[in-house]
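Hi Y.,

Following your request, here is the sequence exactly as I used it, all 55 residues.
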Amino acid sequence: MGVLGALFGGVKLAMGGGSQPKPAAPPIQASSKDEEEFITDFLKQVNGDDKKKDH
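Below is the corresponding structure, written out as tokens. Let me know if you'd prefer a different format.
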């Protein structure tokens, strides 16, 4: 019983790690609202293209 307890306890510890939160992106330092929108749209477009390449 001790062996099975240790086995299942080890499996639970190995599998139980939670997902790590995504690191927060640094704030966008734009001089105007239009520039900020351009940067965010560009980053969304670039990140979307990268995801399409992987598949």
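The helical segments are 2-15, 33-54.

Thanks again,
Q.
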